[in-house]
Design goal:
Blueprint (H helix, E strand, L loop, with lengths): L1 H21 L7 E5 L7 H6 L25 H8 L20 E3 L16 H20 L8 H6 L1 E5 L2 H9 L4 H21 L1 H13 L1
Parallel strand pairs: 1-2, 1-3
Helix pairs in contact: 6-7, 7-8
GO molecular function: hydrolase activity, acting on ester bonds
Keywords: Glycoprotein, Signal
InterPro entries: GDSL, SGNH_hydro_sf
Amino acid sequence: MGCVCVQLQLLLFLPFFLSASAGCDKPPVLFVFGDSNSDTGGAAAGLGYPIHLPNGRTFFNTSSARISDGRLLIDLLCQTLNASLLLPYLDSLSGTSFTNGANFAVAGSSTLPKNVPFSLNIQLMQFLRFKARTLQLVTQGARNLINDEGFRDALYLIDIGQNDLDDAFSKNLSYAQVIGRIPAFIIEIENAIKVSPVFLRFFSKLAHYL
């Protein structure tokens, strides 16, 4: 229930972000962390996981590396913001410089166990490296990359936890035992937010609106 609560709070905040973005002269920047709900190609690029039709049939008319027959919530959000669809961080052949953000979500991911591909803390470490390397290149004069202001003002989405619950139920735990594990999942999400100052700033704004 706690994981659903985190997702609900983020969705409640989206109207405020959309409203603010409408009056902004800069394109929005988004960073996404999670599982198949938000994976726009991470599993295919990072694990070589084959994703064929009928996935993608209702919008892309071909496999889009999404485990869905059409668009995901993050796709609809990007289109609402008139932004390019968010590409997976792991896709080395995308040819993008990630000017509108990056998607770190990978299908099958969970909060626990940690330090396995591609748990939430691994996705966070990828983001921190991406941010540090990007800002280093900006300092060296690179253009068309996200600068410090872009990271600070970006929208951060975390949608994860369903695979943690699925794993718990698959072990034939009782309902009470599964419920008892949820606080541990939430702690991992909280820890992910606390690790990065830019996360803390964003979610502090979120708390203010909620």
